[in-house]
Model the fold of this input.
Amino acid sequence: MRLAVVVQRYGAKLNGGAELHARFASEHLAHHADVEVLTTCAKNYITWRNEFKPGLDKVNGLSVRRFPVSQERDPDEFGKRSERVFHKTHSLADELRWLDCEGPTSPDLIRYIRQHKTSYDYFIFFSYRYYHAYYGIREVGNRSVLVPTAERDPALGLSIFGPTFRSVRAIMYNSFEERALIQRIASNRNVPNVVVGIGSEVPSRVNTRRFRQRRNLFRRFVIYVGRIDENKGCTELFAYFQRYSKTGQLDLVLIGNPVMAVPSHPRIHHLGFVSDEEKFDAMAAADLLIMPSYFESLSMVTLEAWALGLPTLANGHCDVLRGQTIRANAGLYYTNYQEFFESLRLLETNRPLRQNFGANGQSYYRRHYTWPVIEKKYLNMLHQLSGSDKQVPVIESLPGWFARNRRTLQPAHHIIEQIPKGPVLITRKNV
Amino acid sequence: MSEFNIESESIDVERVMSQIRERIRQKRNEDYTEEQIRELADVKLEQFLDPKTVRSGMVQYYQKRLKEKEAALRDTPQAPPSFEFDPDIIYRSSRGVTGKTVRLIRRILNPFLKLFFNPAPIVHALTVQQQINERQAKVISQMVRTQVEFIEIAALNYEVMNNLVVEMTRLSIEMKNHRMRVESVAGRLDFDERRARSLEKVVQHREATGTPSKSNSDTASEGRKRRRRRPRRRPSGSTDQQEGSSSTAAAQTVPTTSNSPKDTPPDGPSLTTQSQSSVSGQPSDVVESTGEPNRSTDPGKSSSSPVTSPSMATPSTENANPDSGSNVASSDGVEPSDR
Done:
């Protein structure tokens, strides 16, 4: 079986969620199939500047074919177009202009897909919201498999993506919440799908003492791993933790690159970007992991914490985190400061509870997120598609010029607001 | 307040969360949350502050004014570019070579033009007007700059004001709580003073009669009491006589006391009402409320007239310990600020 993984950026040192997801999936699928990665020359997801050389490349032994981006993103222009399509009544043409503006626009990549679509059995597209997925899926039709990596953000409410979700051959969801959200928006229940998620490379041995001695941290602490960004809920986390620290005994350790200022506080320790080894040592030394993000499609770091037997405290406003926490039975969540305080205090003071949550998380991870399980889900789906002669409907073509430019579409933000919130609660035996 | 009761083998996140929420709900009943304080500060200042001196909706007023000013500044139309005017401009033409010819013809015909009217004052007036316009443009741009600075200061003022209002609300709530505490403490103090006076009267009364009291019905504790009172070494009368006369005296001096266990209320307030009645000037009642209930003898009589002194109403609601008078004096009042 020959597979093409199509993703907006690709590289051994790129740590974006969808990009890492694509790399892990490609490398593991390569054990079972002939995999080639089709991507752009961009390294930076804000500018999409061409930084890699176009052409064939090798990353961790995998063939990577890179195509140049024709135009960098203009942040001001993108901001204006986002404002129009997200918050104002707009037209289909506005949405298409927004997509071009978002990038990474690479007509060469789309041309290659068009010309070589018969050379691959399936094209696995990552991230529904970018140029490569929208136009690529239109080119390959029933050979396309989509890994949407969708969050509850306004882009999902744009009408251009409905046909994409309805016309792919199969969808590999990251979570039950993501599936519910997309099915609600696109009415695509008949499209074959499976909730897969992603595994992680968790070391079998960790050394907490090594971490504590290296960093001179001998107090009990909670840990946050990820980009330190307002969009990740860090502002709220800092405010809550500073209030909590007046009575609680735990410190807060932060791992990740800062995009915002980290408050100067004797109980908050920012370690910056660290190696994977140190990251896992730190996680193992922590009492629990805090995940304050409002928007997550999966949260790999939460899965890693569970893999290490660490309980989690998640932001309950994020449906995915809340749903995962409930299904795994491996932590608590909060929706305001009072809940944050009580949950953290409970986890801080109740060791048996922490241990039980940790054990539950570890068991949940082993059942659903180890690589053999993930690989099996992908391969089962691909074999199922190969064995089925069911033809997916041809993708809906774009309307004419006048219809495209008629401003009748609702603001995407309103559409997303109308979708019911909350975790998908299913019986635990089905999880 | 309910504690978390989690069995290790049957942990359920939702159950733990519901316990946490229940705990939060209980806490909320006791104290104001930050959000509630903010809500109070935003909406109903008159409830806490003097309505004559503080205007309600101050925060909203500032916010609205600030937005109006910003909108007005945004809506100010841009001034057109200044027109460069000089005496020669009325003869010029912008048509290239033809324009130069036209200009030359106008120059030649200028004397004839002056036969009809004099363009010089018009040119002069327009030049002056241009200078005035430039000056006005400068003044306006300065005013706009000042206005922008003012808006920035107003934004800071708004923030300060907002914080002040929040703090003021918080302080007024605290003050209210403190006032309640002071009243409670004052009541307790009053109670203690009365109790002390009553105890003094008891001592005086005993010294005057010279007969320590004893309950007839309490034969079991007789020996103990005798032993305890032996060191007093009263000068006259045998022990038995003392006890007998004491019991008679107690029966005479305690007409309104309730001593039976069934009359003892299980909880604070009603018991303290009973204690109040006993403290309201009856010495033997005070003895009962100070932890020696076995001294009074006649339960049937005692519950007949529950007298409550109005002056003791305040301590009765604050001191809620049902056990004894001595505990009443040291019990914690049930006040929101105590928690």
